[in-house]
Specification:
9-stranded mixed beta sheet, 9 strands, binds adenosine monophosphate, binds zinc ion, binds fe (iii) ion
Length: 280
């Protein structure tokens, strides 16, 4: 039987992705994916839209999100899977996180204004056209209004952590993030650990109820993928994976390129089923 593949880390225009849910579903079909999860930053708003397109195409859909959380002064990303997207607390809390994102854009723009960059927060919000704006939208606005030649330049000159015009975002504590995902019926997974350098804090995450680690990721090398897969076995955690696609780049698809086997999803489903009711 032909092997089935999945992609469990995708963004749409409901956060900082450039593709609409419909375009993501079409790309998933083109890549012959059997299942996909939507993990937009701090929002679940796109899930109902993408689910509709996936149902039409016979692609299995997992509602998710990617929360920015604080762990001992570091920002990390926490993926949530199998979420009840009608869960009231999840809706309320993600609305607060979105407001923190909006406030941060206003602060970032103020910093840029102080160094003579004449951009307004509304220009960024009008370009973002979503409730969860982020630095990539600001980077696109800096390019659109002629202050930078590329998104990369915008990040390296103004938006990267450590730049004088950078400001931190207020994030929820990781324990609260994990609890929020669990109370909405979901699994909590540490995103792209290879990009974070906080492996020493994985025991804290496990203590807080972490369910899995994202081992396959576009920016993980094979050796990184292997290291985290071994770690998940040692710690009895789920190994998950996805492309973290924010849209096609230079015309090429990124969605589905990590070749995550469908069996990974089956293990996740077993854990959700066995955790139901015991995670609160
Ligand atoms: P934010 O959540 O607003 O802090 O923005 C974080 C997002 O910006 C990440 O999820 C990436 O999609 C993107 N990003 C972070 N660093 C860079 C970079 N150096 N160049 C381009 N995009 C980046
Ligand atoms: Zn992003
Ligand atoms: Fe991330
Ligand atoms: Fe992501």
């Amino acid at each position: 039987m032909k092997q089935k593949f999945i992609d469990l880390h995708l963004h749409t225009s409901f956060s900082d992705g450039i593709s609409s849910p419909e375009q993501v579903a079409e790309a998933a079909e083109d890549m012959n994916l059997s299942a996909i999860a939507l993990t937009d930053h701090d929002t679940i708003e796109g899930c109902s839209h993408l689910e509709k397109y996936c149902i039409n195409k016979g692609i299995e859909f997992i509602p998710g999100t990617e929360l920015s959380v604080d762990i001992e002064g570091n920002e990390m990303h926490l993926l949530g899977y199998f979420l009840d997207i009608e869960n009231q607390l999840l809706i309320e809390q993600t609305t607060i996180y979105q407001q923190n994102r909006i406030n941060r854009i206003i602060e970032l723009v103020e910093r840029l204004n102080k160094i003579g960059i004449d951009l307004t927060a509304d220009q960024v919000f009008n370009l973002a056209k979503c409730k969860a704006p982020g630095r990539p939208h600001l980077a696109r606005a800096l390019v659109k209004y002629g202050f930078c030649k590329s998104n990369n330049e915008a990040f390296s000159r103004f938006l990267r952590k450590g730049s004088p015009t950078w400001v931190p975002k207020i994030n929820a504590n990781y324990r609260d993030g994990i609890k929020l995902i669990h109370q909405a019926g979901g699994l909590a997974v540490m995103a792209h650990p290879g990009l974070n350098n906080i492996d020493n804090l994985i025991p804290n995450l496990v203590d807080a109820g972490l369910d899995g680690i994202e081992c396959w990721h576009t920016r993980h090398q094979k050796s990184t993928e292997k290291r985290y897969r071994e770690m998940t076995i040692k710690l009895s955690l789920l190994a998950t994976g996805g492309s973290d696609c924010h849209g096609p780049q230079k015309g090429l698809p990124i969605i589905g390129t990590k070749q995550v086997p469908y069996e990974i999803l089956e293990m996740m489903k077993q854990k959700v089923a066995s955790s139901a009711g015991s995670l609160l």
